[in-house]
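Task 17 of the worksheet. Students: predict the tertiary structure of the chain below and write it out as structure tokens. Keep your answer in the requested format; marks are given for formatting as well as content.
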Amino acid sequence: MRMGKIKKNDTAAVYLTTAFKMQMQMVIQYPCTLVEAPMGYGKTTGVKEFLKNMKVRVMWQRLHDNSLSGFWKDFCGLFRELDVDCYESLLQIGFPESSNAREMVTGLIQKTLQLEPTILVLDDYHLADNPEVSDFMEYLLWNELPELHIVLTARYTRLTNLDELILKGYLQHIQKDALEFTPEEIKAYYRLCGVSLNEKEVKNLLNYTEGWISALYLLMLNYKEEGILTASSNISRLIEKTVYTPFSEEIRDFLVHICFLDTFTLEQAAHMWQKENSEELLDAIVGRNAFISYDEKTGIYQVHRIFSEFLRELMKHMEPKEKDELYRRTAKWYEKTGDYISALRYYYLAMDWEALLAVLEEDQGHSMLNEHHKELTSFYEECPPSIRERHPVALLVIAICFFSYNETDRFATICEEIGLLLQKNPSQKNHQLREIQGEFELLLGFTEYNNLEKMGAHIKAACNLMERPAKFMDTRGGWTFGSPSVLYMFHREAGQLMRELELMKETLPYYDRIAKGHGAGADHIMEAEISYFRGEFDNAEILAHKALYHANIFKQQDILICAVFLQVKIALYKGDYAYAAYNLHRIREQTEKGKWYHLLDTIELCQAFLLASLGQKQDISKWIANGNYEYSKLHFPAFAFFNIIYGKVLLVQEEYHKLLGSMDYFTENAAVFPNLLAHIYTHIYAAAANEKLHRRDDALEELTKAMELAIPDLLLMPFVENCGLIETLLTELYRKGMQREFISSALGLYERYKEAISNITAEYFTNEKPALTEREAEIAQLVAQGLSNKEIGQQLYISENTVKTILKHIFEKLGIGSRALLKQHIAL
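Model answer:
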């Protein structure tokens, strides 16, 4: 079918349907707008074109896959230009899965946006296909950051509460029908591109395309070349015929070379092309079609998803050698820019094992999170042994990653492989061989984790072989795996606690030499904890300060947290709640300021212990109260310590059946290394829960088991901390003549502890304090978060004067006169 007149035109012109424009005009009225339609319906182009004319800040993130770390890295990057400190903080926090992390992230975002309306576009959102990302998005929507409006473009979406979000006005849903062209819009679009259509031609195009813009565009290009409308349902064939083939051979070759880059800069394109004329070729491409666009403000080119998928299909038909070269160039770019995960993936596709292992050595495993577990397994298993043999440091890195994944069998296999390599006496120079042997000895120390005698032997052997700090070990992370107790980590055998301390003191100086001060102060904190658990509080306090001094020198924040946690427990025993609360607040501020965000969950455990000890279950973080260990940044060796806190919380929540049902699970976790302190607390909790359920014989049996583990090392405080629930049991055992000296000591310590808890409760948690109304409590919480009266008014949709009036009532009720005092009151 021949079509009407052709005029000079812009074939890359953009035309938006009336229905789409009307709905997009409402984008600023909703926390979220979802633009959902199949591929090629103009979602991305339409949103971009519409937002160009809005006087708001636009932040644009294009999604590429379902990698959680990849999503988060790109999300954080959006804030880099606005506030470098915010960008770095978001990166350090990592993807926020716990409520604590989410609160910090939303606080940072809100502070950075600074009352300027901002539209955040997540383009190709369906590619995330990740429940964690969806949960985070919904969290942002339900919390309604005043100036943030999110636009999601997706072929499909899996928001869990989509219908509820729409019903309650949190989300506007733009669907396929709003993007489909009507007959009038087809005619207007073609006219814009210089083609006049009659009614019959419009009707035929509507029948062929059903208003689908990609087909309309490609048929228009085809007509420009041939002067005739040819119907085709094969989109790839249309792209090849109308977009790809008309380019010169050089441009076609160039396009295939950049096919892995959905978005890229001129520098990236030049790296892939490796010729001088990249800019000239890109100018020719952008000027001729709508499938590659250029943003002058950011200097970024963007390839339409349809076109990039077409180019990648073409690439599959290239010679293997050419394909591998493209993979390798892409990998080199990512390696150069520090995106080690992407570099590893493309070296893997190129099967360039030497380069892949070199990247692992360079990164020291820092980027290999738990989500990369399967990929790392593939890298290791598919890499030829003869190449692995030449990279013992990479093998060490892989081994320590598998250790952190709790892959004990694979960890042991790699250790065995490294041992055999060293026995072969490879061709390295003698000093290089000694260093590798030293690193291997250090790695073997991890195979004996928490057995200080065996660990110490390996660490000393490593020190004798090495003249420099270990290469394979990433000391940027913490030393305690997220545990706020060193004694918990290394006490494994009843009656051997002082020997374990002696071994710690012998071993740590050797470890510090090859680990750059990693773990400094741990020996002092372990000794301090021993004094605390024996009821020797003055000595414990002195040693805690000693640990603080040494940890501060080497900036060992996790050891500092251990010391502060001990100070909190001592203050609690003495009835000094203000000091305990202040210390936790101060260490949290210090941790946030230093961007040790991975340790904030550890501080939350300390806070939960304090709150549970005082019966304040309502203020305990939900992830702890619900037993959601997996939402935290804690590592596996800290799992049993999490259970110490979680078990105490279950007791405070009076969930006795649930606690007893979890006992086998708690015991299994405590037995892994083993962690004797966790066993002691587990038996005490089981005794308390059984007593509450009137199972006295079971309760006495459990308490007896706890005492059998604790008495050889005089560990009194686990019994004192929980004596309110087991006092009658201890008294009965005492009357029966069992362990009278130990029980007498525990009950004696408990008298002062009970008085301290009672005094704190009376002073800080009495029910006689004036109750705030729901609205007053809401405003008080927002004040505590640092929001101004104006910001509170905008968030709650009330006037600034109303906020002032309510705030005045709050001050009068609570008998305080400043926002600072209100913040302290909320913290209590």
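Marker's comment: The radius of gyration is 32 Å. Confidence is low (pLDDT under 50) at residues 1-8.
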